[in-house]
Amino acid sequence: MGPGALSAVLGALRLSMSPNLLIGLDVSDDAAVYKIDESTAIVQTVDFFPPIVDDPYTFGAIAAANSLSDVYAMGGRPITALSVAAFPDDLDPAILVAILQGGSDKVAEAGAVLAGGHTVTDREPKFGLSVTGLVHPDRITTKGGARPGDRLLITKPIGVGLITTATKWDEGRPEDLVAAVTSMLALNRLAAELAAQVGVHAATDITGFGLLGHAAEVARASGAGMRIRAADLPLLQGALGYARAGIFPGGLDHNRTFLEAGSYLRYDDGVEEAYRLLLHDPQTSGGLLFALPPAAAEELMRRCEEVGQGCWEIGEVVAGEGIRVE
């Protein structure tokens, strides 16, 4: 569902509340957080989608990494997961076994356990996880803490949607898909752990709304604006070429239309159309976006470089509102 349609649905809900619900639908963050006691809160999230690659084991692992990412974005540590699966009656059950195994192995890599799940019959396979994690109530990283002067860092290159779409259209190169799959399979665990060591003001993960869509959520929640430098964006190999060829997923249009309505988003005249597409490209199992003070940003980039974790500075938080792409 696109950001505009989802916003309308959530705005029509009448929600029950609890003083222990620290983060719920009313603030639109990456996951719900419920306080158990003064030192423990649980983080809960759910995500699932149709296959993004042909290999069922790889699909299961990517879907799991994507679902786990919301817990990392909130500063949490995943402990359990439940599978959510839809599967056709006329497909070989061995395919579902491979999907579930891929998901289970990725959950184990995260240090958590796959404890159960639920399946339904559907014409199109779908898979994902409901994940529960733990976080100290004082160490939650939300979208709403960014401050003017903060630097913006991202921990994975973008372009997954364009590359997988090019593959579906038989226009993609196999080596580009391999690079995209490798990125999608990577957990955000290490990046989140390193960020916790230096302290961040705000965080989110980059998924279906694209980099600009999720950056806008941080900016609005923080009551601030942003400047993003298109030339500094880390890109997956091949992504820029596909954008220049006009190959992009349908969900990109929904993201772009929502943000470009009105004057909230502005591009400098020199920003190439291909980069505008990339900024709205829906990501699957994308990286984390952090807003943090300059000194902390330098320290995080240094620590990431030491251990081979990707980390790129792409802009800054500014006073006011709206996003400017330079």
Structure report:
The structure is a single chain. With 326 residues, the chain is α+β, with helices and mostly antiparallel strands. The strands form two sheets. The protein has a seven-stranded mixed beta sheet with strand order 8-11-7-12-9-13-10, with helices on both faces. A six-stranded mixed beta sheet has the order 1-2-3-6-4-5, covered by helices on one side. It has helices spanning 3-11, 56-73, 93-109, 160-168, 174-185, 189-198, 210-222, 239-244, 250-260, 273-280, 294-307; strands at 21-23, 32-37, 40-49, 77-87, 113-121, 126-135, 151-154, 202-205, 225-228, 265-267, 288-292, 312-318, 322-325. 39% of the residues lie in helices and 25% in strands. The longest helix has 18 residues, at 56-73. The chain folds into two domains: 3-139, PurM-like, N-terminal domain (60s Ribosomal Protein L30, Chain: A), CATH 3.30.1330; 151-325, Alpha-Beta Complex (Phosphoribosyl-aminoimidazole Synthetase, Chain A, domain 2). Helix 2 (56-73) runs parallel beside helix 3 (93-109) and helix 7 packs parallel to helix 9.
Descriptive terms for the model:
alpha+beta, 11 helices, six-stranded mixed sheet, 60s Ribosomal Protein L30, Chain: A, Phosphoribosyl-aminoimidazole Synthetase, Chain A, domain 2, about 40% helix, globular, 2 domains, about 325 residues, single chain, about 25% strand
